[in-house]
Amino acid sequence: MGPEGSGWARRKVRAVVLCPQSPRSPPAFAHAPILRGPDSGRVSRPSWARWFPGHPGLHFPAGLPLGWKALLAKSEVISFPVVQLHLNRTAMRASQKDFENAMNQVKLLKKDPGNEVKLKLYSLYKQATEGPCNMPKPGVFDLINKAKWDAWNALGSLPKETARQNYVDLVSSLSSSLESSSQVEPGTDRKSTGYETLMVTSEDGITKIMLNRPTKKNALNVEMYHEIMHALKAASKDDSAITVLTGNGDYYSSGNDLTNFTDIPPGGVEEKAKNGAVLLREFVGCFIDFPKPLIASGQCPALGHLPSPSLGYSIAVYASDRATFHTPFSHLGQSPEGCSSYTFPKIMSPAKATEMLVFGKKLTAGEACAQGLVTEVFPDSTFQKEVWTRLKAFAKLPPNAMRISKEIIRNREKEKLHAVNAEECSVLQGRWLSDECMNAVVNFLSRKSKL
User: Of 138, 176, 245, 354, which residue has the fewest beta carbons closer than 10 angstroms?
Assistant: First the structure.
């Protein structure tokens, strides 16, 4: 699972590259103190800046396996539009002092601005100080420098003065947006829900937990893992009779956010794997212990991490006829999780569960229903109406009777499920440290970057 340390939900680029391109960069380069190690004596770096040894300004834990270096260096290598902020403001060019002030302002940022923004800052700095990209294009396997080169080269012949102004404008807008995001007015959705990656509502006896990272296909980052656990614990104590888990956008969930693998703590990859196993065990445990009827509502495709526990522990699973279910654990060099190694063979047959868990067979909604993973399938055009008609009817049933009935049905299995969960997480901890897993993840990201 490999959590994402700081849990930044808005990451768009997998390579984190802010260091100088070459030793020729001036010693006063504003980003170097941010990226330099704690011994630099220059400035305390933000917690979000951790990098590789062997590159100016890039520091990673000692002894990092090659597979992890390749993964952490991996970028989607996507091209973003040239940053052209206020190109017509020829009369308002930023002075060198403004530029230096902006560089100092970057040092003071306390929150991760996102990897795409970091690349933009890097490229604008290089353009403002050296002009158009003058470095040879790195080889295809030199992923870190290639991502930096792509970002700088994308600026083309943008004049130094314009790049300097754009840099100042970008830093100014970045500082303003981060400041405003930390000063949310009472009554707004964020303040009222307290969630960044979910939309949680409770009405008419139904608590709805909706995954809300549609631009990331509702991939689970560390923040979402924690928020789902918090939402389930809150729902178990509120006045609702039932809880429904669903997703906003084109995916119910696309599984684990693979950027979770890229944020390595000071203790290295071993600490990363250990923390990930602890988080996953707690996450799955929340589903095992959830006392109320839990319904999964999937109108869209579902992959991996979330479908495993939600399919296995839900009282009912409703799907539209365009939904699919996929657990590509082997494709990523990993192993079953969410107690799926136990629940899927019980729900399906051992042979069918093996097809799905070992060989990664993708099931249509109809196939999943025939195998018992899905309760009922509805046409996509009438899905919401059909599901909510049932949910509202369930919510009118005596809540204590439903809770007690669920306990009688499931309690015999709880001890077994917790034991299976612990075993699966222990195995996964080892898989995450394997070269096989790292190579599979790198290959997956490489294919994705070409789409």
Answer: 176
Reported as a single tens digit per residue, the pLDDT across 130-183 is: 999 998 988 755 666 777 888 899 999 999 999 899 898 888 887 765 554 444
- Among 29-33, 372-376, 384-388, name the one with the lowest average pLDDT: 29-33
SS3 266: coil
Residues 373-402 have a mean pLDDT of: 96
Please list the helix, strand and coil fractions of the chain in percent, rounded to the nearest 5, in that order: 50, 10, 40
What per-residue confidence (pLDDT) applies to 87?
A: 39
pTM of the full predicted structure? 0.62
Neighbouring residues of 285: CB distance < 8 A, sequence distance ≥ 6: 418, 421
Write phi, then psi, for 58 (nearest 5 degrees). -110, 125
The CATH architecture one would assign to domain 93-177 is Up-down Bundle (1.20)
In this structure, of 231-235, 252-256, 381-385, the range with the lowest mean pLDDT score is 252-256
Distances (CA, A) of 90 to 87, 95, 163, 202, 280: 7, 12, 12, 53, 53
The CA distance from 98 to 76, in Å, is 32
Domain residue ranges of the chain, discontinuous segments joined by +: 93-177, 198-449
Parallel, antiparallel, or unpaired: how do β-strands 242-247 and 363-364 relate?
unpaired
Residue 277 pLDDT exceeds 90: yes
What is the architecture, at CATH level 2, of domain 198-449? Alpha-Beta Complex (3.90)
Closest listed residue to residue 432, CA positions, set 264, 281, 305, 273: 273
- Strand order from edge to edge, sheet including 316-320: 198-203, 206-211, 242-247, 294-298, 316-320, 376-378
Which residue intervals of 154-300 are DSSP H helices? 160-181, 189-193, 222-237, 268-289
Residue 400's CB is within 10 A of a number of other CB atoms, namely 9
Tell me how far apart the alpha carbons of residues 22 and 33 are, in angstroms, rounded to a whole number: 15
DSSP 213: -
Question: What integer best gives the mean pLDDT of the chain?
Answer: 77
Backbone angles phi, psi at 214, to 5 degrees: -60, -35
